Amino acid sequence: LLQQHYQNINGGSPMKSATLKGLVIHTADEAGPDPGPDYMFGWGLVNAERAANIITNDQGQNVIDELLLSEGDTYTREVYVPEGVNELRITICWTDPAGIPVSPQLDPLDPMLINDLDLTITDENSTSYYPYKLNPLEPSAAATNDEKNAVDNVELVSIFNPVEGTYTISVEHDGALQNDEQAF
């Protein structure tokens, strides 16, 4: 239904699978004991109404983008956050190129991303905010957000009760990009 709604609003063009995945994660209701993902509930419970509202509001606010990051480039965008906002949430998602699988095992620790994109939000005081990430060695621990995430192809930065002002969204990459580009 979300795909159909998006197509109705966007002249029949469908969302990319990574866009739909990112949208559903971005709008999910928290289900675990701590903010962010966890090994019990993942990113939470799907909130289809919230996702549909974002698709509808994209026409006036430009909140869904399907972009391409080229080798050596950094994507930046500034957003203004007014006073009284409860949360600033930014999510990126991409379909990573196929890698070489490891032998079958539960929760392998080998990093497997081929194209490692990195999302960072920076405020006017040069404070950087990073995406959530989980520690597979401590599955009951809360997700952290104090450094880059080099493991997942979904990155979500959440700033609770942000101070009014301009925030800069940055997406860059670590290492070379296969085929010199990555859609996100």
Q: Estimate the helix proportion, in percent.
A: 10-25%
Strand sequence of the main sheet, in spatial order?
Answer: 2-7-4-5
The radius of gyration is 17 Å
Structural class call reads: alpha+beta
The biggest beta sheet, please?
4 strands, antiparallel
- Average the pLDDT over all residues and give the rounded result: 96
Can you summarize this structure?
This protein is α+β, with helices and mostly antiparallel strands and about 180 residues long. Helix content is about 15%, strand content about 25%.
Descriptive overview:
The chain is an alpha+beta fold. The chain is 17% helix and 25% strand. It is built from three helices and eight strands; from the N terminus they run H-H-H-E-E-E-E-E-E-E-E. The protein has a four-stranded antiparallel β-sheet with strand order 2-7-4-5, with no helix packed on it. A hairpin with a 5-residue loop joins strand 4 (116-122) and strand 5 (128-129). Helix 1 (2-9) runs parallel beside helix 3. The radius of gyration is 17 Å and the shape is globular. The two termini are 22 Å apart. The model has no long low-confidence stretch (mean pLDDT 96).
